[in-house]
Amino acid sequence: MVIDNFRNKFKDAIDILKTFNKNGYEAYFVGGCVRDYLLGEEFSDIDITTNALPEEVKKIFRKSIDTGIQHGTVTILVNGEGYEVTTFRTEDEYTNHRAPEKVEFVNNLREDLDRRDFTINAMALDSNGVLFDYHNGEKDLSSGVIRTVNNPNERFYEDALRMLRAFRFSSKLDFELEKDTLEAIKKNAELIKFVSIERIVNEFKKLLSGKGNLRSLELLLDSKLNNYIPFLEEIKIIQDFSKYLFCQSLYILSKINNISFDILKTLKLSNKEVKLIKEFDKINVDFMSEIPLELILYKHNFEDVVFVAEYFSYNNRHNIENCKLTINSFDDVDITSQEIISIIGEKPGPWIKSVVSELEHEILLNRLNNNRKDILDFLLKMRDNK
Ligand code: ATP
Ligand code: MG
């Protein structure tokens, strides 16, 4: 039964471990997939750890990508699936409380598991489904706690990002932080300053999407770790964000905590993300200015409108779905801009844009029918009234 479950969950990946073994190497499933498998949860990525060196991995598996070769990681492609394979390693040369630039390959699994962050992330499974759990990760999984592998002060001192990762896993799994682990975060919080904002944002994003995010955010604020992170230091009011996308959560956090969008810049978000957050605010302003729903929907993306409308109780999805638009773009209007120019009889200029937008508004608000004749009449009247 147990072994059947193992086969069902890891399927083809088991043969990968066996291929390593046939070639004289050790290889194990490790990290998140082992944790999620033991919890009975779905997992998407399967990470493998082995004593084969990256060059040896690449010889055995022809199709591979050098994902992080300097850290000993290659991605192998088997039956169209990618698997991250990392050579057993330790990370002794931490500088400035960050993940090390250089790693040292080692020859035993135990040492590789020792360098991992939390007990629940430091377990491995061999090709027969036998569990290697030197840090009592399984026990912590069943009691629902996040505990560092070995001394938390040392582990957070080495790589300060682990403090934020503790909250992100507590959110993902709805787990508590083990007492000494939490105490060590409170003590070392300031070290997070040394970590790049990109790594921080990556973890914060995952924290916000977890089922236990509200409790984790509470713990995070209580630990004061957020006091040393731009934007997060401004957060006082929190809520459950699990049903929101990342940019939606950031927008809500900005609004409920009165944080200026300028501060969002320090998070080094992508242009696309910044644009989306600003778009939410434009929609919000439109609702506040009591612009008719038809016009708001015409200008903005449907789901974005629903999000803003529902969050701030301007309207609900049902009503918004029922608001049918007479046109979806200027292409649907029964006239061309060329024709508008010849009717109005002026040199092309910025005026065209405002005439087009007036036409669109009239049609959307059903004050003008979308047919050539009515539109021509409307334009002639407009010209004569000038
Ligand atoms: P998820 O399924 O959410 O991605 P994960 O466990 O796979 O969870 P990753 O961030 O992808 O999390 O990391 C993979 C594994 O690498 C972890 O399970 C852990 O063993 C190890 N790890 C990652 N980051 C660190 C770190 N900063 N310090 C120590 N070990 C780490
Ligand atoms: Mg992962």
**What's the name of the CATH homologous superfamily of the largest domain?**
Beta Polymerase, domain 2
The name of the CATH architecture of the largest domain is 2-Layer Sandwich
* Count of the separate structural domains: 4
Chain-averaged pLDDT: 95
Distance between the termini: 83 Å
Give the distinct bound molecules: adenosine-5'-triphosphate, magnesium ion
Question: What's the Cα radius of gyration?
Answer: 28 Å
Number of strands: 11
The total of helices stands at 20
The name CATH uses for the topology of the largest domain is Beta Polymerase, domain 2
Estimate percent helicity: 40-55%
Main β-sheet, spatial strand arrangement:
3-4-5-2-1-8-9
| Major sheet details | 7 strands, mixed
Q: How much β-strand is present in the residues?
A: 5-15%
Task: Using the alpha-carbon principal axes, give the shape.
Answer: elongated
Compile the SSE list and pairings:
Blueprint (H helix, E strand, L loop, with lengths): L1 H9 L2 H10 L4 E4 L1 H8 L7 E4 L3 H7 L3 E5 L4 E6 L2 E7 L1 E2 L13 E2 L3 H6 L9 E2 L5 E2 L4 H7 L1 E2 L5 H7 L2 H13 L2 E2 L1 H10 L8 H13 L3 H11 L22 H11 L4 H4 L6 H18 L4 H7 L2 H10 L5 H6 L14 H8 L6 H14 L7 H13 L2
Parallel strand pairs: 2-5, 10-11
Antiparallel strand pairs: 1-2, 1-8, 3-4, 4-5, 6-7, 8-9
Bound molecules: adenosine-5'-triphosphate and magnesium ion.
